[in-house]
Amino acid sequence: MKRQVLFVLFVVMILIAGCKRQSESSQNAGSGALTATDARSIAKVAYIYGVPMVAQYKTIYAFSIDKNNPQYKGPFNSILNFARVFTPADTAFATPNSDTPYSFAGLDLRAEPAVITIPRMEKNRYFVFQLMDLYTFNFAYIGSRTTGNNGGVYLIAGPGWNGDTPKGTSKTFQAETQFVSVVGRTQWFSPADLPNVKRIQSGYKVQSLHEFLHTPAPPAPPVIDAAG
User: How many of the other CB atoms lie within 10 Å of CB of 190?
Assistant: First the structure.
């Protein structure tokens, strides 16, 4: 993470220095070049735009790519459920809930969409699947307050996908980036309720579209080798 942040800072510094020199050298010529103030404003926007992607990629790399990382949750387009409550020992992200056992998935949408299947559950049980793109924007929620507790099948597509929506799906959510982090939370009511949570979690599915349709897989995307 430190290397990526330093890289962003380095790019920003180059932008500031370059624009400042251009501004100073051309002011007398009346070329209308950017001022140092303009350059600083542009650099600020570039930093704000870039840092969230660096931070989010770090999480995606740890969760879905680096198998030697203690935070590794599993390969892309699969789901890992934790049928327990989280404690301060869980440090992958800040302030985890203590009454909603978690489910995690990383989606790689470069080759094809992914499909998330949610089972029917009790009306009084809260659950949510938070979908976050590479910009750290929460672009969709599947859950009690948005899609209801009757279950459903949801297509998650990348920005370039324009295929037909397959039969049997409830709704399509289109992300602005090819990588998506999914954080699921399922309410538990007491320690005695944990078997019910496990039963619900066992019904959560994350599949690539070809797996859902039982069709041949598309060409695989390039292997990711950029360290997080």
Answer: 7
